[in-house]
Amino acid sequence: MAMDDCECMQPRQLACESQGEFIGVDMSNSRYGDVWRYQCPQCQQQWLFYRVEYPSFSQSGRWFRALLDASLALDSITPADAETLLNRASYRIVGGSYYQSAGIVIRGETTLPFD
Ligand SMILES: [Zn+2]
């Protein structure tokens, strides 16, 4: 199966939280973003998954997951690295109540709405 055909490339959240490895909490701008690493069981690609929401604001829940470059030293990724890595990624999927969507593909460099 070609990597591009794998279900992990589809605009869905996947089981990043229940089956991924929790890396920690990103405290940048006091935002308490939860960060996971997830390896697709089918194609073995590595994803970075991020979830944050601001309880004082309705429809503020958002999650991002991005394909990690295979050349990255995966064990050295910290929660504070997540924003840069997710913004820089070439392929990412986002969703949540903020987007009012269960999944959208965003390609190329962008500035994701972390805050
Ligand atoms: Zn996959």
Automatic annotation (TrEMBL):
UniProt superkingdom: Bacteria
Name of this chain's protein: Uncharacterized protein
Organism encoding this protein: Shewanella avicenniae
Native organism taxonomy: Bacteria, Pseudomonadati, Pseudomonadota, Gammaproteobacteria, Alteromonadales
